Amino acid sequence: MPSHSALLVIDMQNAMVAMAHRAAETVAVIAGLRERARAAGVPVVTVRHRGDDVVPGSEGWRIVAELAPRAGEPVVDKTTPDSFLDTALDATLKALGVSEVIVTGFATEVCVDTTARQALSRGYDLTVVADGHTTSVRTAADAGELVPADRSIAQYNAIYRTIGWPGRRIRVRAAADVDLATPEGALGVRPA
Whole-angstrom Cα distance, residue 168 to residue 44? Predict the structure, then answer.
């Protein structure tokens, strides 16, 4: 029976996590959700960025140990914020029978948002894990130019709670409220 949902873990690499706001908490949330997904038979797809500052094979390029993919789990390499652009992500999801993506990772305003919107444009339903994505730590040099990290995360969660996309279901759920045991995957909510 084909899967309906897949958990996407975007750019949770050593270099990115080293600059992430609430890094340990976000890694722990994703790790817990990933284990629940595996137990429920929901595929986990790891997306890994490469570029001039994140060179394949380097320590910074490696996925953090707590989120390292298991043997046989799909890993998709990308070179832009869009996890679908010039990658095997769409083909991988189609081969798995996926109709909904559950999005987690780094960075909220860049790769997470771009991938989430592209998933919608490509026909996937979407669940954004409210406590499963993060952005960079803000420095004094960023003051006045960037929204504080907590506010940025909250803003993107609010956008996805209100955004409309014809023919698509969009949900924002805390990891604890993502129900992976129902046929609808994350679109279901565990009973209170």
Answer: 21
Q: Can you give the residue ranges of every domain in the chain?
A: 5-187
The per-residue pLDDT for 187 is 46
Residue 133: closest CA among 101, 156, 165 = 156
Tokens of 58: 């380097």
130: three-class secondary structure by DSSP: strand
Give the Cβ contact number of residue 105 at 10 Å.
Answer: 27
Rounded to whole angstroms, how far apart are CA atoms 130 and 134? 9
Q: How many CB atoms lie within 10 A of CB 39?
A: 10
User: How do beta strands 5-10 and 170-173 pair?
Assistant: unpaired
Q: Which residues contact 22 (CB under 8 A, 6 or more apart)?
A: 134, 149
Give me the long-range contacts of 14-18 (CB less than 8 A, separation at least 24).
Answer: 14/59, 14/60, 14/61, 14/62, 14/63, 14/64, 15/53, 15/54, 15/60, 15/61, 16/49, 16/54, 16/106, 16/107, 17/64, 17/106, 18/60
Cα distance between residue 140 and residue 153, in whole Å: 19
Beta bridge partners of residue 53, listed in sequence order: none
The residue type at 106: F
18-58: pLDDT as tens digits:
999 999 999 999 999 999 999 999 999 999 999 988 999 99
The CATH classification number of 5-187 equals 3.40.50.850
Stated pTM of the model:
0.92
